[in-house]
Amino acid sequence: MPILGGLGVVGLAVGFAAQDILANLISGVTLLLDRPFRIGDWVRIRDYEGQVHGLTLRTTRIMTRDNEWVSIPNKDVAGATVVNLTAGGTLRLNVPLPLAYAERVPEARAVLLRVMAQHPKVETDPAPVVLVREVNESNLELIMRFYVSDENVKAYPVLTMQLREAAKEALQDAGLAAPYPRQWIYRVDGAPTAPEPRG
């Protein structure tokens, strides 16, 4: 009886393991048929973003920008939302920038368009644009909208940081101010005093 009981536990464990293997195998076949990505594509799967380097019977293998190799079970990939960053060719990016209300948007747009035109990895077709995305309580929010080729998708986080830094310096050189938090202080009689920076 103890031997039979032990065999039953082992059989149950093997059954669960086989079920997991079978689920990954079926999901791998589904991914091959559905083809949401190809080897070499840059994808975002759950919390991971990287380049696909392999699809085995059990896992999908990607390499992140930090050179981390990640093996994701195929059943998790098949059940997740897969964002393919390179399948469509060029990738559109948006870099937000705040602008003070007192500044003129056309002047800021001209400065930011020059910044994007000077970066070698920003595509010229479609042409970059600068738009007002939001009108907030204390500032305007502009976005630099541009495209990068699929070859430069790997470097797009660094590219956006470079453009943000270059835009800040260019706006400052042009005398266009960035907003800062302001707070109105009222006297007892209700007359407002000059605004003071917060913090």
Which key features would you list for this structure?
single chain, 199 residues, alpha+beta, 3-stranded antiparallel sheet, 4 helices, elongated, disordered N terminus
Q: Level of helix content?
A: 25-40%
Determine the number of helices (DSSP H or I, runs of at least 4 residues). 4
Indicate the proportion of strand residues. 25-35%
Oligomer: single chain
Q: Roughly what is the average pLDDT, rounded to an integer?
A: 83
> By helix and strand content, what is the structural category?
alpha+beta
Number of strand elements: 10
For the record, give the distance between the C-alpha atoms at the N and C termini, rounded to a whole number: 75 Å
State Rg: 26 Å
Strand order of the largest sheet: 4-3-2-1-5
What characteristic shape results from the CA principal axes?
elongated
Note the main sheet. 5 strands, antiparallel
What are the secondary-structure elements, in order, as H or E? HEEEEHEEHEEHEE
Low confidence ranges:
3-7, 9-14
